[in-house]
Specification:
It is a single chain. The protein has twelve helices and twelve strands. Helix content is 34%, strand content 18%. The longest helix has 16 residues. 46% of the residues are buried. The chain is an alpha/beta fold. It folds into three domains: 56 residues, DNA polymerase, domain 1 (Orthogonal Bundle), CATH 1.10.150.530; 114 residues, TIM Barrel (Alpha-Beta Barrel); 130 residues, Aldolase class I (TIM Barrel, Alpha-Beta Barrel), CATH 3.20.20. α5 runs parallel beside α6, α7 packs parallel to α9 and α10 runs parallel beside α11. It has a ten-stranded mixed β-sheet.
């Protein structure tokens, strides 16, 4: 096994775990041609398969009328195996928010959420099954890490969402996907190689990929500094979101345990490096937790850390998990927090929380599903 590159965390799969099957979306266009040729078919069939998957969203070989009937199932088996199946969809907000629970090939459960607003459609996707960051207020973090998702398992969440929008499965008529946020289950930069591969697939021109804009993609991190610096050198135009949750190391060591390794100022310095190289504004994610991190003096400290930087603060009223001692801030404390940040000239908004009645917090739906 090759040693990890700087910023890449290693992950040892549980004994007996099966790797996800190889899929078209795991491969670059050149690798797809090689894989098709290895089946005995002409390499140009790779472009046809890409067209079916990324543009037509047709995975049924019987519909691939531009491919000889005798080759369809063989190509499907080799390059378009079933990666994941829907366990259930749950909806709220008049069906404009739809959460999907997926079962992967090995029985692992992950989640994605599609949110339709009047002016945009956003999908929140998972990059890992579970999470190893151990943040105590997060349902996924408390469940622990099962495994990394493959590039194709990440991509397929979006492909299915784009298909659902095209087919009018979400009320409001056919629509296009506006934004993708890597804020579902997992720490994206702890699955660096596959997350980067998924971004390439999502933004490669059709039919090699979905042809989406990098500027519509946000990648979240709790602050894996070496990976953040490596990400800054990729030449991407994605937005980086830092899940800060506390401006002082004493509290953040508890709320975001990775802070014991990389402190607040190191994390922010890496974020400013990404902003400088990408030209994109940094998003600071801050879950407001009652009587824990929502004091006015912490808002003032955060404002002083961020003042004058290319940044936007996204305050998130905590979506509590069942039985948790953590809950959302009082409205008056939230308002004071916003006022204090804006007094420093820091652009600040409060996230429109959705999905509380459908186990909307990341990891809640998977946690509520009986194991097989």
């Amino acid at each position: 096994m090759a040693p990890p590159k700087p910023g890449e965390l290693t992950f040892v799969a549980p004994r007996g775990a099966k790797k996800p099957p190889r899929h078209l979306a795991d491969l670059s266009p050149a690798e797809r041609k090689e894989a098709v040729a290895a089946t005995g078919e002409k390499p140009f069939r790779a472009k046809q398969l890409s067209q079916h998957y990324f543009a037509r969203f047709t995975q049924d070989p019987e519909q691939w009328t531009d491919i000889p009937a005798g080759a369809r199932q063989k190509l499907a088996d080799e390059l378009l195996p079933e990666l994941m199946s829907v366990v259930r969809h749950v909806s709220c907000d008049e069906d404009t928010t739809r959460k999907t629970l997926w079962r992967l090939h090995d029985g692992t459960l992950v989640e994605s959420v599609l949110m339709r607003y009047p002016d945009r459609v956003t999908m929140c996707i998972s990059s890992q099954a579970g999470c190893g960051m151990n943040c105590p207020f997060c349902a996924t973090g408390q469940a622990g890490l099962d495994r990394n998702l493959s590039t194709a398992e990440i991509v397929h969440q979006i492909v299915d969402g784009v298909r659902a929008l095209r087919d009018g499965e979400v009320p409001g008529g056919p629509a296009n996907l506006s934004n993708i946020v890597f804020m579902g289950m997992g720490e994206p930069l702890a699955n660096y190689k596959r997350v980067l591969g998924s971004i390439r697939r999502l933004t490669d021109p059709t039919p090699d990929g979905l042809g989406l804009s990098q500027r519509g993609i946000t990648v979240s991190t709790v602050g894996l500094v070496p990976a953040m610096l490596r990400f800054a050198d990729e030449g991407l135009k994605c937005r980086l979101a830092v899940s800060l949750h506390a401006p002082d190391d004493e509290l953040r060591d508890t709320l975001v345990p990775v802070n014991t390794r990389w402190k607040v100022r190191e994390v922010l310095d890496a974020a400013w490096e990404y902003a400088a190289k990408s030209g994109r504004r940094i998003s600071i994610e801050y879950a407001l937790i009652r009587d824990i991190n929502d004091q006015a003096w912490r808002a003032d400290l955060l404002g002083r850390l961020l003042k004058g930087k290319r940044v936007h603060v996204n305050l998130i009223p905590l979506n509590p998990t069942p039985g948790s001692k953590w809950t959302a801030s009082r409205p008056e404390d939230e308002q004071e927090f916003v006022r204090a940040l804006r007094a420093h000239g820091v652009p600040t908004t409060v996230r429109d929380t959705r999905g509380q009645e459908i186990d909307g917090a990341c990891g809640q739906l998977a946690a509520s599903e009986p194991t097989e």
